[in-house]
Amino acid sequence: MLPVAELKGLTPRDLNARILTSTQPLLLRGLVAHWPMVRAAQQSQQAASDYLLRFYGNTPVVAMLGPPEIRGRFFYNDDISGFNFRPVHAPLQGVLAELEAHRADAEPPAIYVGSTTIDAVLPGFRAENDVDLQGREPLASIWIGNRTRIAAHYDAPDNLACVTAGRRRFTLFPPDQLRNLYVGPLDLTPAGQPISLVDLHDPDFTRFPRFREALEHAQVAEMEPGDALFLPSMWWHHVEALEPFNVLVNYWWRQSPHYADTPTNALMYAIATIRDLPPAQRDAWRELFRHYVFEADDDTAAHIPPASRRMLAPLTEDMTRAVRAQLIKRLNR
């Protein structure tokens, strides 16, 4: 595995289109080292907890709890019919107290607050800890827990992940390694995204032989407090929190318009409607998708008068909504 390419000496003001639209991951050393949250965490876990609670009201957070024997690996149960953890709603101060109580345990229970919207739960936090994403309007989330492991998965948005307490290791796989990652169910997932079934710490190469090839293409980012990682859309990432107390802030944004639906919906419906067709019909639909989607260009609808191209023209918000309404009507027949 190769290290992720690094850029050093940047400040949030240095984030530009070259970085924020990169198709390769970038490790931005020390990008948010000046944040008060980072400085508090460098003092102590208690100082970091106190800093977070300055902004907290009474909105419960969702914490995932797993027994000590899962060793921080949030995953499926043995037959992939459910999961090896349970979600609970709890006040943030209770979660932070549990993390402190189990800090010295050799085998602590796994505690993980994932993807919690900062503005909803910690209003005012971003006034002191934030980055300028050049006019983008991201979803900002916070992740809090002890030593945890999240299996390789992808996210459709671009991602800027900032370590503010503890250390993290991201192991990244490019999108073209999908076949070698042995992905689990699409419609039963631990946190909304399909995940690799391979245990990165103990890969079973008899069961998952192609994972060796995935490892040949992997990149690794070892992150310290204040470091940030730019993760392009659709890159698979296995995430490990390496200390008894870890906090990460991340920003998600899409390069598509805000009114566009997620392509995941198209994938799932294509599976339901195309995958099991006879081979000749699948080939015909492959050609339609190639022509109208994956290789669409100015010539695709050049033979149609511009005013009549409708959804074959560059999509506007109104046309996108009209297409969605038509699709919903068809689905509800």
Automatic annotation (TrEMBL):
<dbReference type="InterPro" id="IPR041667">
    <property type="entry name" value="Cupin_8"/>
</dbReference>
<feature type="domain" description="JmjC">
    <location>
        <begin position="111"/>
        <end position="268"/>
    </location>
</feature>
<dbReference type="Pfam" id="PF13621">
    <property type="entry name" value="Cupin_8"/>
</dbReference>
<protein>
    <submittedName>
        <fullName>Cupin-like domain-containing protein</fullName>
    </submittedName>
</protein>
<dbReference type="InterPro" id="IPR003347">
    <property type="entry name" value="JmjC_dom"/>
</dbReference>
